[in-house]
Amino acid sequence: MRFEPKVLMRHSEWKQIARACLAEFFGTGLLILFALLMHNKDIYCHIANLSLNIWFTGPVSGGHINPWVTLLFTLQGKVPFVTCVLYILSQILGATTGSAFAIFVLANVYNDERMNSRYHEVGMLRVRPASDIGGTRTDSVYVIYFILEMLAATFFYLTVLSVSDHRRHELRSWDGSCTFLGAFLIGFSLIPGWAICAELTADCVNPIRALGPAIANFQLGKLFVSVFMRNLYLSDLSFF
Known about the structure:
The chain is mainly alpha-helical and 240 residues long. It is 66% helix and 0% strand. Pfam families: MIP (PF00230).
């Protein structure tokens, strides 16, 4: 995974930056679209989804497709601040577009009864954990959710740091991007978090997994009130 793309670090031509941002847009959009549509599928489907998106966007943009990954490497000085902002904007737009398309597919493929069930399943109408938005659980449960999501996120980001280490020659190709093995290892790191958190927090890890559907459903207000201020669902922030 090329977290310090030469094309962005050494040149500032807008066409090159735009190309990288488009890669982040499409990579994130496809990641969220497939993640939502196959929400209740086997974990290995999600591993393949993440690994392939990282792999094919890596040579162009570094294959971040996650705002916290971009922020992490910006804090390390590997990604310029302006590039960080453009990447995150592209990722949010991609996640919103992917979520909107998933809503369109669900609304036009399934009948009304199955649509309503499936719609809630993938967290479209309510930010996961869906059953907790109404406030039926105690604050101590939300603290547990926060800790579990923090552990899953920490394991995931430590794997990203390890794979992107310049000393891992077997995981990096000649142009600095990660090999398919490196992308697969990042995807494979979802398994521990999934095993622990899937039924409780949906193992978010990537914050735009919640942000994209919230924007697409015009529920951004609920996201901030229920998630940031109360449920602390985007606990990936705690990694920093």
